Amino acid sequence: MKKMVFGIGLLLSGIIGFVGWCIAAVLLVEPGARSRILGCLNGEEWIVLLIFAVMAVAGLIISVIELKKD
Length: 70
Description:
Layout: H1 2-27, H2 43-69
Helix pairs in contact: 1-2
């Protein structure tokens, strides 16, 4: 049960971090300058987004494995 809660926390942290970083990147761009969210990201920001995505996937895998154990 502890691992499942850890996995769910990791999943939510990854998703919230990913979305929050995308929102912060969009707010730095002048309104109307770019039409897509991913177009607002620079090279260094992709590394941070990749870390958040890996966190979310790892949390999903951990929580699904623990769910199947019970």
